[in-house]
Amino acid sequence: MRLRLDFTTGTLLGLLTVFASPARAQTPINPAQPWGSWFIGTLQLPGTAEHRWGGFFEAQARTNAVFRQYFYNELKGGVSFDIDRNFTALLGGGRYATRDYQDWGAGPLNVEKRLWGQVVLSQQTSRLKLEHRYRVEQRWFRYRADTSSTRLRLRYRLNAFLPLNHKTIGPKTVFLSVYDELFLNPNGPVFERNRVYGGVGYQATTHVALQVGWVHQANYNLPAFKQGQFIPQNTSAKNNVVLALTYRLARKATAPAPERLPSQQD
To answer: Which InterPro entries has this protein been placed in (predicted)?
Structure first.
C-alpha cells in the first residue's frame, strides 16, 4: 500500500512539473511597460520657390510614465534644400541623452551623437497627402562606464495626412496624421525597430501647428548565447502619448506659399 501511495504521489508531482514547465516558458522576457509621454517642440524655416534653403531646430523630452518620470531628451537641428516642390534633401545632427529616472543625479546612462542625411518625397491628391522619408544615420555612443560604440542605421517612414475641414492644410485646418517607420541595422538585428503613430492636429495659423497623438515603439533584439545560455529573440514595446508644437517661420515672398505638411522631424 505504501509503495502504491508513493508511486501515485510521485506520478502526480511529475505531471504537475510537466504542466508547470510550459507556464514558466511562457513568462514574457520583457513584461508590459507603463504608458509614457513624448513632448516635442520644433522651430522650422521651410524653403520656398524663391529661397530653397531652410532648416529646423527641435527639442524633445520623454517620460517613462505619463507626464512623469522624465528620463530622456533630444536636441537636434538641420539644414534643408528644396530640390523641387515635392522633393527636399536635409542634413541634420543631434545629441540624445538617456538617464535613470530613479537616480537622476548619477548622470546620463549614455549620450548619443548623431549625424544623418535624408530625402523626403511628397505626393498630394485633392485631399490625401503622402510623404516618403528615407534616412541614413551615423551614431556615436558614450556610456557611463566610459565605453563607446558606433552604429549605422537606415530608416524609412511613410506618413499620411488627411485634412478634415479643408482640402489643403492651411490656417484653421483640422487634420489626421498617421505614419509607420521601419528602422534597419546592417549589422543586425536587421529589423531593429518599428514605430507606429496616429494623431489629430490643428494648423492654427500659417506659423503654429499642434498635434496630439499616440505612438507605439517596438525594439527587436537578436537571439544570442550569453554565459553558455541561449537567449531567444525578444521584443520590448512601449505606448506613449505625444504632444507636439511646431512654429514655422515665414519669409517675405511675392508668390503664395505652397502647402506645407506638418511632419514631425524625429
So the answer is: DUF2490
Element (H, E) at 138: strand 129-143
* CA dist., res. 5 & res. 13, Å (int): 12
* Residue 242, pLDDT above cutoff 70: yes
Q: How far apart are CA 155 and CA 181, in angstroms?
A: 7
Which pLDDT band, with edges at 50, 70 and 90, does 109 fall under?
A: very high
Does residue 223 register a pLDDT over 60?
Answer: no
Instruction: Say whether pTM exceeds 0.90.
Output: no
Q: What share of the chain is helix, strand, coil (3-state, %, to 5)?
A: 10, 60, 30
d(CA 114, CA 139): 5
Side chain identity at 187, as an amino acid letter? Answer: N
Q: Report the DSSP beta bridge partners of residue 124.
A: 129
pLDDT in the model for residue 234: 61
Give the bridge partners for 41, in sequence order: 59, 245
Maximal CA-CA distance, the chain:
103
Please give the Cα distance from 143 to 115 (Å, whole number): 18
Mean pLDDT of 245-264: 82
Domains by residue range for the chain, with CATH: 37-248 (2.40.160)
